[in-house]
C-alpha cells in the first residue's frame, strides 16, 4: 500500500487565473508593471551582499518617505499590523501604561495589542468621522502618564486625517513616546517625522513653492505598509525609531515578547547598529524587498511634494464629483479629510453591500464598506499612489452613478 493516503488535489492541476481588477478600496492598491517586474527578479540568498545593498537602498528610501534621519529605519517582514506589534512589543513592558487615541479601528487594534503584552491600556475616543483636540490629548497624558501614546494619522476606517500639530511636543513634555500609524496617509499627504521636515519647509520658502500643512511632527516611532500609496504588494512594512525610542527599547529590563520582532535583532539584520557583521535572524521575503525598493524608487522619481499635491487635488476633484451625484462625505471638516481614502455616507435606502457587489460584478472595480466603528455607515474609496488620478475618479463616479440607478432602493 502507498503511504500517501491523501491524493493530489485536482484544483492544483488547473492553471491559476487571477482577474484584473481596479483596486479602489482602502488597500491594497494596483501594482504598476515596473514594480511587478522588480518582484519577479531571481531569488538570491537573504544574507547575500546584493541583498544587503538592496536593504540599504530601502532604508534610504524610507528615510526620504518619512523625512527622517533616524539610523534605526528599516522594513518589517509583514504587513502594517506587524509594524504596529513591532513598535508596541519593543517599547512597552508588562505593567507600563499605554495611551491610545481611538478614532477608528486602528486605535482599537493598538489597544488590543497593548493589552496582550500586559500593559495598562487607557483610551481616549473620538466620534466616528471626528478627531481629538490637543487639549483632550494633554489632559489624558497628564492624568495617565503613559510611556507610549498611539495615534493613527490616516484612519482608513473613517477617512479622517488626524491633525498632528503640537502632539509630539506634548508627548515629550510628559516623557512619553509618540507612536504614529501612517499606513493610509504617508506619501499621499504632508508628513515629516523629525527635524528634517523644517529643512524641507525652509527650502520650499526659498524656492517660493507652497506646501500647506507641513509640520515638524516630533514622532518617535512611525510606520506604514507597502500596499497603499507605495503601490507595492502587501507584505513589507517600513518603520523608523528615534533615538529616544531606541533608548527606551534598549534599556528595558525584560525581553520583548516576540523574538521575530525583537528590535535588537532586526536593527542588526538591517545594518542599523555599529556591529561589524550581520547575524542571521530570519529569512526575509527577498522578492518583496525587490518590490518595496522599486516602489520607493518610483516615489523618489516623482518627488514627495508632487505626490502630496497630486493626491490632494485628485481628492478635491473626487469630493466635488460625489457631491454632484447627491452623495455626502462622512468627514465634515475639509482639513480633516484623508486625501487617500474617502468615506462616503452610505446612500439612504440602499444596501451598501449590494452597491459594492454590483460595482465589482459590473465594473470589475473594488470599493468597500465601513470597517470597525464605520460598519454600515459608509462606503470607502481608496485612490492611492498610481491610482490617484482624475481618470480613475471619473471611473469611480460613473460606477457609483450606475449602481445608484440599478441597485434596489427601499421606499
Strand content: 5-15%
Helix content range of the residues, please? 25-40%
Q: Which fold name is given in CATH as the topology of the largest domain?
A: Aspartate Aminotransferase, domain 2
Described by strand count, sense and barrel closure, the largest sheet is:
7 strands, mixed
What is the assigned CATH homologous superfamily of the largest domain? Type I PLP-dependent aspartate aminotransferase-like (Major domain)
CATH architecture identity of the largest domain: 3-Layer(aba) Sandwich
Q: Supply Rg.
A: 22 Å
CATH class descriptor name of the largest domain: Alpha Beta
**Count of the domains:** 2
The computed structural class is alpha/beta
Strand and helix layout:
Blueprint: E1 22-23, H1 33-39, H2 49-66, E2 72-77, H3 80-91, E3 97-102, H4 105-116, E4 120-125, H5 134-144, E5 148-152, E6 154-155, E7 160-161, H6 167-173, E8 177-181, H7 196-206, E9 221-223, E10 236-241, H8 243-250, H9 263-269, H10 286-302, H11 304-324, E11 341-345, H12 352-363, E12 365-366, E13 368-369, E14 378-382, H13 390-406
Parallel strand pairs: 1-12, 3-4, 3-5, 5-8, 8-9
Antiparallel strand pairs: 2-10, 6-7, 9-10, 11-14, 13-14
Helix pairs in contact: 1-10, 2-10, 11-13, 12-13
Description of the molecule:
The modification N6-(pyridoxal phosphate)lysine is found at residue 228. Substrate binds at residue 380. GO terms for molecular function: alanine-glyoxylate transaminase activity; L-serine-pyruvate transaminase activity. It catalyses: L-serine + pyruvate = 3-hydroxypyruvate + L-alanine; glyoxylate + L-alanine = glycine + pyruvate. Its cofactor is pyridoxal 5'-phosphate. The protein has helices at 33-39, 49-66, 80-91, 105-116, 134-144, 167-173, 196-206, 243-250, 263-269, 286-302, 304-324, 352-363, 390-406; strands at residues 22-23, 72-77, 97-102, 120-125, 148-152, 154-155, 160-161, 177-181, 221-223, 236-241, 341-345, 365-366, 368-369, 378-382. It has 411 residues and is an alpha/beta fold. The chain is globular and about 65 Å long. Residues 196-212 have low confidence and may be disordered. The chain contains 13 helices and 14 strands. The strands form four sheets. The chain has a seven-stranded mixed β-sheet, with helices on both faces. The protein folds into two domains: 22-30 and 303-406, Aspartate Aminotransferase, domain 1 (Alpha-Beta Complex); 33-300, Type I PLP-dependent aspartate aminotransferase-like (Major domain) (Aspartate Aminotransferase, domain 2, 3-Layer(aba) Sandwich).
Amino acid at each position: 500500500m502507498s503511504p500517501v493516503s491523501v491524493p493530489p488535489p485536482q484544483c492544483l492541476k488547473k492553471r491559476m487565473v487571477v482577474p484584473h481588477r481596479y483596486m479602489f478600496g482602502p488597500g491594497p492598491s494596483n501594482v504598476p508593471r515596473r514594480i511587478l517586474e522588480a518582484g519577479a527578479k531571481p531569488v538570491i540568498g537573504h544574507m547575500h551582499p546584493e541583498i544587503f545593498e538592496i536593504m540599504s537602498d530601502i532604508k534610504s528610501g524610507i528615510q526620504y518617505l518619512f523625512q527622517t534621519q533616524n539610523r534605526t529605519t528599516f522594513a518589517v517582514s509583514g504587513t502594517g499590523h506587524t509594524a504596529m506589534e513591532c513598535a508596541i512589543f519593543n517599547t512597552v513592558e508588562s505593567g507600563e501604561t499605554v495611551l491610545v487615541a481611538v478614532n477608528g479601528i486602528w486605535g482599537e487594534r493598538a489597544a488590543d495589542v497593548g493589552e496582550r503584552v500586559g500593559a495598562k491600556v487607557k483610551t481616549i475616543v473620538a466620534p466616528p468621522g471626528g478627531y481629538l483636540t490637543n487639549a483632550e490629548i494633554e489632559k489624558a497624558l497628564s492624568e495617565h502618564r503613559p510611556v507610549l501614546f498611539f495615534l493613527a494619522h490616516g484612519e482608513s476606517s473613517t477617512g479622517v486625517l488626524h491633525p498632528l500639530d503640537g502632539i509630539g511636543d506634548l508627548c515629550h513634555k510628559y516623557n512619553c513616546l509618540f507612536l504614529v500609524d501612517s499606513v493610509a496617509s504617508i506619501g499621499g499627504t504632508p508628513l515629516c517625522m523629525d527635524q528634517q521636515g523644517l529643512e524641507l519647509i525652509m527650502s520650499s520658502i526659498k524656492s517660493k513653492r507652497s506646501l500647506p500643512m507641513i509640520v515638524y511632527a516630533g514622532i518617535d516611532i512611525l510606520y506604514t505598509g507597502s500596499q497603499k500609496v507605495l503601490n507595492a504588494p502587501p507584505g513589507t512594512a517600513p518603520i523608523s525609531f528615534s533615538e529616544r525610542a531606541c533608548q527606551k527599547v534598549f534599556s528595558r529590563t525584560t525581553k520583548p515578547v516576540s523574538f521575530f520582532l525583537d528590535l535588537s535583532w532586526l536593527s542588526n539584520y538591517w545594518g542599523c547598529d555599529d556591529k561589524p557583521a550581520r547575524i542571521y535572524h530570519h529569512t526575509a521575503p527577498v522578492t518583496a524587498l525587490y518590490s518595496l525598493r522599486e516602489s520607493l524608487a518610483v516615489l523618489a522619481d516623482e518627488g514627495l511634494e508632487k505626490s502630496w499635491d497630486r493626491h490632494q487635488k485628485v481628492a478635491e476633484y473626487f469630493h466635488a464629483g460625489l457631491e454632484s451625484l447627491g452623495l455626502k462625505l462622512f468627514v465634515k471638516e475639509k482639513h480633516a479629510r484623508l486625501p487617500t481614502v474617502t468615506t462616503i455616507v452610505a446612500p439612504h435606502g440602499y444596501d451598501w453591500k449590494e452597491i459594492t457587489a454590483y460595482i465589482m460584478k459590473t465594473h470589475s472595480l473594488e470599493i468597500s464598506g465601513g470597517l470597525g466603528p464605520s460598519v454600515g455607515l459608509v462606503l470607502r474609496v481608496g485612490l492611492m499612489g498610481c491610482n490617484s488620478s482624475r481618470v480613475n475618479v471619473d471611473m469611480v463616479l460613473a460606477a457609483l452613478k450606475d449602481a445608484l440607478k440599478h441597485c434596489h432602493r427601499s421606499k
